[in-house]
Amino acid sequence: MQDDKDFHEICRRVGGLDMTVVATGSGISKQSVSSMQDLVQKYGLNIPGSALINRDIFAGADTDDRRLNHFIDAINSDHKIIWAIRGGYGSSRLIATLDRTPKPKDSKIFIGFCDATSLNLFISQKWPNWKVIHGSSLIFLTPDSSSNKFETLMDILEGKISTYEIRGIYPLNNKARLQSSVVGPLTGGNLTIIENSLKTCWEIQTDGKILFIEDTHEEPQHIYRSLYHLKEAGKLSKVKALVLGHFHGAKYQDGLEPYLKGFAQTLDIPVYATDQFGHGDFNMPIVYNAAAKIHGNEMTIDLKF
What we know:
The protein is α/β, with parallel strands linked by helices. It is 35% helix and 21% strand.
């Protein structure tokens, strides 16, 4: 089948990357361990055993100290790319120690989303020579999602593109409808983790940025409450625009849509919505600090930064 061919090709390309894999948050299921081991054997993916630990999804893949040491080993390795195997819970517990360690001399690429948003924010704000990508965790490398979640990401990692577009972006308030275009560098990630960043050493810096947000398994009223908290904390007062991505598990038409539209009307900034990134069927990569331009119903991202 064409899907099998696509999956084989994506796996072949991932196997050709100079990368290593880390488990900064939760462990993975026994079935996922088996699937990842198959990818190692068939395609040569460099997935160390420390990233293939089967633990309850609400616990860390290992102790904090061991996960931290595995991540530091990846930082100090010769590999150019560090890829989070999944999100879950626990990545933020590594940051206090990371903040006290010397900044890495070598630049690398870090890929992750969901719980890894904490590391995305820390690295993109503290280690400016690194490139950070809000992109699918490696656990999502399956036949069902290979094209929708990895095609553009692989083009970025292989250096095949210098710009790309995320289409299907729609205005949620009059400010967005009346503004012909918005330009700014990108930051954001998982809403719950962004809210948790407040008053920490990795607190999200939003001034002058285009802020992108997604989340999973949150009720519409909880999403509204967290967005309003960001507003009250001053994190939306100087952003260039807010882009709300997919909120997996929150029924948009039946409940979430009125909350998002209602919140958008309270802001004096352009607010947009899209289903093209997050935990849904699509997860287009978003590169932190890259220059972005929202125009029409698409966002163009320039990687030459």
